[in-house]
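Hey, sorry to bother you again with one of my protein questions. I've been puzzling over a protein and I'd love to understand its fold better. Take your time with it, there's no hurry, and the full record follows here:
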Amino acid sequence: MFNNLFTPKNKKTVRELFLAIEIHESLIKTAVWQVEDEKPSIVSLGSYELWDSEDSLINGTDASLTEAIKGLDSQPDRVILGLPESWLVDNKVHPTKQKIIKRLKDDLSIKPIGVVTITEAVVRHLKDQEGIPPTAILLEIYPSKVIVTLVNVGEKQAIEEVGRSDDLARDVEEGLARFDAEKLPARFILTNGSDLSDEEQQIVSYPWTEKLPFIHIPKVQVLPIDFSIRAIALSGGAEAAKSLGIEITEEDQPPSESVADAAVESISGDFSSLGFKLEDEEEAPSETTPVINNPFEEEPTPKTGLLSRLPKLDFGRLSLGRPRLPELNFSRPLLLFAPLILLALFVVSATAYYFLQGRVKVTLTVSPLRRDQVIDMAIGTNPVADLLTVPATKKTISAKASDSLSTTGEAVVGEKATGKVNIFNYTNQPVSLKAGTKITSGNLTFLLNSAVTIASTSGILDDNGSIPPGKSEAGITAAKIGAESNLDKGTQLAIDTYPQSSLRARSDPALTGGTSRTVKAVAKEDQEKLLASVSEKLKAAIDDQLKKEDPDNRSLAVGPLKFTTKNFDYPVGGEATILNLDLAADLEVLIYSRKQLLSQVEGKVLESANPGQVLAAEHTQISLTDPIPGSNDTFTTKASVSAVLLPELSGQKLAEETKGKRVIVLKNLLQTVPGFKSATIEIYPNIPLLNSFLPVNDKHFVFNIITE
């Protein structure tokens, strides 16, 4: 009887909450999803945030997740990431992107359980929704590019990235032409936009069957902007959940007759079909989609800053052994009191467990104090008197970078008019003309193709009583392109400086072939803009190179870029819609430690801070500018500091002062913290009546500070 006392009769429904984060070229999307009753579903969607730098990616993701988890009873931390195809190389997350993901993981305290490419997730979700593996051309629309993916029966066959111009349809045509396919599916799917009506119309109105091997006019479908984040959470998340030991029930979707007739091979439930690798999963070869190595398993990094000073405990799994009950002689009277005895035992056990083993999680939201200031510093091998000095070493580093942009210039191109003329000599002396001699008609100029000699008059009267001139035929070409140089037969032309009474020409036959048209061309400003852009990209590549050697390394350029290669694929004025630049250069830099820079700056910032404030190093931004050379490879510079100050809070002290007391006591103390906005106190287990008191074990208190 007592063996079943603490065992529930029915299986309890377990609700598991997870996060999903999608990172596009310039857009961040998030969602909260759950597994309940063995089925994945969307709980909430976060806001859509723009990003253009590593810092804005972190802040944008934080803002989006804050919106997604608003109103939830708990805050999930396990996450599945959706990444662009360009972030992967050799079926692995690119090393330059791994550092971004690592910072995202560390700064936001999330636990990635896997990675899936956005394209693969979308294709998989389309298959789940439609019941058949899709065959289509997937277009991912970005401001600067379009990614064209050929999908055949749910499998990604080919992918091309094309620079975005004003004519989207031609851009897509260029990408499809690179596939060299014998036949293309008559279905376009557009994604990654909130309003793609203009893009949809461009695709719909383009004569695809005349340009490429479409068997009939393709249909165009526009996916909702939230389709991709739902795909990552539901299609990708389901497989991630399976790997964690969570049972997932998949809904049966019978294939259509067309699919059955075609004997289409079903897609495996293995998550490797999405290019995904889960935590603790052994790497194994795949015949379909290469498995992406999980970039998140690493040694824990000691955290610095305010939160490191707060007490944290590992809430291990609590094991209550089997209760030992006294042997009782269950006489009939005693049985009447058995329920009361059991109730008393339960109350005593629950109370003891609550106060001794209860856990407290405090989340304090504060408004940080932001302080901007410029500090004069020195950087180099030798300290400078009266200046903060950051140790650094001078080094010359070589790097390469390339990029492209759409041209903005215009040029007139075409053909020159050509033909033959008869030249007449009315003098009694022969006349010789050189190649290139000018022949004009009004404001139009033509040039002799080759040298010619025109004989003199014969001096003999003809039947009309006049003296016939000497005559020679010669070929001419217009000096400029254009149809205006096309002249009718019999047009009179003047020759150089000769008076027409001595020498003249006549077109015979007509001059033809002149054409002109205006085309996109390379402007000087295009080259200058692209050079500046690639130069900055090259400097960033150098900084990334140093960070690979040591994540704490930073660089400051102390000299101009010395180009070793600078190749534009078109000159100024050249006909082109896209301009490409390959750049290689040497750069003199000072290599320094960010930790040492923070250490120097922290003391200076805190000089003017209020008592009880500390520098939030992970949120503080510092940039060094305007290096001026001194002696012995030491430079003076200006440090532009954007500091974030937080209240200095001792979680251990608060826990010791409030343990066993009413919850309101802790709330009142938290409200005295400078910059206080709000606080939440969560107690586990949450037992009514008891939950107005705090447990007595101060080591079970965990404090977290977030900024707003």
In short: The domain at 132-224 is CATH 3.30.420.40 (Nucleotidyltransferase; domain 5). The longest strand covers residues 388-406. The radius of gyration is 39 Å. Confidence is low (pLDDT under 50) at residues 1-13, 252-293, 295-328.
